[in-house]
Each structure stands twice: as structure tokens, then as C-alpha cells.
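Methods — Computational structure assignment.
A single polypeptide chain was analysed. Its primary sequence is given first, followed by the predicted tertiary structure written as C-alpha cells.
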Amino acid sequence: MNVFSSKAVVYPRLLNACFKRTFYLYSPEPFHPLYDRVPEYKTAEEAVQVIQSDSRVYVHGAAATPVKLVEAMTNHGKKAGLRNVEIMHIHTEGPGTYHKPEFEGIFRSNSLFLGANARKAVNEGRADTIPIFLCEIPHLFRRRIIDIDVALVTVAPPDKHGFCSLGTSVDCTRSAIQNARYIIAMVNQYMPRTFGDGVIHESHIDAMVENCEPLHELKRGALSEEEKQIGKLVADNLVVDGATLQMGIGSIPDAVLSQLGHHKNLGVHSEMFSDGVVELVEKGVITNTEKSILTGRLVSSFSIGTKILYNFLDNNASVEMRDVEFTNNVAIICQNPKMTAINSCIEVDLTGQVCADSIGERLYSGFGGQIDFIRGAALGLDGEGKAIIAMPSSTKRGESKIVPVLKSGSGVVTTRAHVHYIVTEYGIAYLFGKNLRQRAYSLINIAHPDHREWLEKEAFDRLKCMPSP
């Protein structure tokens, strides 16, 4: 079989374990042009025919999820009677059709970070999830711990030199396409062309499928009064001028960003960002001029938001979309000045253990990059980093999110030894260097007033002494 041929057939890894992309002769990157090789343009239905039983397929995630290719793959799987096709991905947008019960036995998802479309299948035992730090996902592919047969990705159209872009999501996708035996790219004119690690020359792509449809959008919801207060507490007390920020997506990061309008010379080195960052760049609040790593440039590995964000990203040389092995590398994060990591969670116990990936035994998300940045900020070389966990004091049902012990079956994402700051709408608890008695006291003081007496009694039962400063 000629691996340089765009018509080469890829067999399942069990039948053809020796198949490799042997044209990586002088570089491990899918960047250099291969002048004797061109991709074949196909329909989605034609392109996915390469997927066979026992194949392992990687699916591009977040805003870049190639829904048209996914739908063609699921239709092909049913029509061809495929069995045991494994789908690897971080969180994806769209319906995630392969998760549906009628596809059991045909496809089995293996999530590296759970999105909403995967939770039901995982919790019903029809899909799998791998607990892993975001920074280490590329190791699975680069060290060939997990091999990929087919990668389904979305790219911006090739430029005049044949270079495409992974656009909004470089994350672990870059390492997946380095490892994949066969790459199918959905070419979408709506995909912004970004700078950094997401460049792939078309000659490394086996099949291209043209599709022009708007990217998945994630619109911001209205902030609650509690969230606004958390944002104000963090912005006024913990974020200083010249700080480098990491924050995820959702109401808590949005609440913090909304309160930073009067800060100066902030920078961004994050695993992801959304619309709120764009507003601060346009106001001149985020300049990235104080950063030690990639000074003057906003650094992230993926992004998802609205058209405002995607227009900002397109051909914007001030934004570097980098491999997650770089963005989430603790040794790199800690070099940025006043590194401030702002993350959220599901609940915290009175000793400072943080659950962020499950609700009791029910899996909800994943490790993501929380511990990568919590550790990077805590180890800041200038001694001014801040590792922050922020959350409302209560759930929407009125249950305390500060609890005596984590729910049975809950996973600890951030250990009590890693925790520094916990923030609710009632205040800031600084736990670093405090013993369990002092931690319980600080956490009870930022719990909802309706729950404090209960928490104090439970703390005494657990610690055999009264919480005190």
C-alpha cells in the first residue's frame, strides 16, 4: 500500500498495526508541504467509508466539532453494520449522535473531558471517560499509548500556499493529527484562521469535505446577584494590575471579567477564553505587555463563544492558539507575572478538598486544566501568583456547596494541599498554610448564613474540636 496515495485504504489497527504516516521524515509536525501529495475532495459520505469495525476515531471538539462528518460517520456505521468503533474526544458540540442507545455496539465514546452530550451515556454505562489532566492528553497520542486510526477535524480553507488552520481548537487536536493514520478535514469558510500551533498543510490531509455553516456558538447568560458579587470580590481583592489571567468558561469567569474594566495591563495565558476577554482587549485593559511568555500576545489552546469572538480571532496575529501541552505546562505557566488562575467547582469540603468533575457518583465533566493552572499560579516564580476557586455558596436548590464531607462517590480534582483561595459571594477564604481547624473556620465564614450553624456542628463532629482562626 502506498501511504502517499490519497486513495490509500486504512484498515483497523488490529489488522494493520504496522501502518504509519511515514512521510514525517524530517519533522514531527504536520506543517511542512509535501509537494508530491494532495488531498482528495469527497463528500462526507464518501470520506467516512474509510472507518471500519474496530477503528479508533478522534473527533475535533468545542466550536470546531465537525457535525456533518459525525453524522455521516454514524449513518455509515449503521448502514455498514460496523462494530466496536471507539470515538475519542474532549467535549464536543452538537447532538453527539453516537452516544444514543441505538448505536450501542456500533460506537463507544471515550471522553477525555465530558460535555453535555456525553454525560447520559457515560452515567448509563454506554460510554467511557478517562480521568486525565488536560496538559497530559497529548502524551497519550505522542507516546503512542493510544493510537488514532482516523481523525475528523474542521479547518479553515487552505491559503494560496496550501496551509489550513485548526482555528478555534488546537488543544489536544494537534497531537491527535500527528498520530492519526488518516485525516478527514471538513473545510469551513466560517472557521477563523488563527496563528500558533494550529497550522496544517493540506498535503497532510487525506480527504477534504467542503461545508459552509456557522460555527457552534455559546452565548452568555444573565449573571445572578451572587455571581456578580463573586466577580466583584475577585476583581477588587485578588486581581491586580499587570496580572496574567487564566479562567475557564461560564458564569463565574464572566462575572470576574465584567468587573475588570478599570484594571491596567492585564495579560491572558489560558487553556481557553470567550467573548468577555474580547471586550477587555478592545477597552485596552488586556494588553499582554507585562507577560514573560509570548509578551504582547494572548495565549490560549481553544475558544468558544459567539460571532464576536470568531471575528476577533480571524487573522489576528496578537492571538496565539497553542498546543495544550504548552499552554497548560506548569513550568511555563509559573513564569508569567502575577499569574492568577480562576476556576470553579461543584463542592468543597471543610478541609479544602475540591470536587469539580462529578456530583456524587454521577460524572459531570472532567479534570480539564484546573489543577494545571492552580499549580502553575501557586508556583509563580515571582511569588505573586494566586490560585483561586470561586463558586456560589449554595446550589440553585439551596443546598450548601461547602460541605462537611464530599458526597459519596465524588472525585477530588484539586486536593486540599493544592487549594489556596476559595471565594463565594460572602467572602474570601485563604487556606494555604492553615490547619484543618482553621480551614473549617474560614470556609464556614464564607458559607451561606443559613448553613453555618450546621457546618459548625458537623466540623466539630469530624475534627473533634471547634473550628477557630
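Note: Confidence is low (pLDDT under 50) at residues 1-26.
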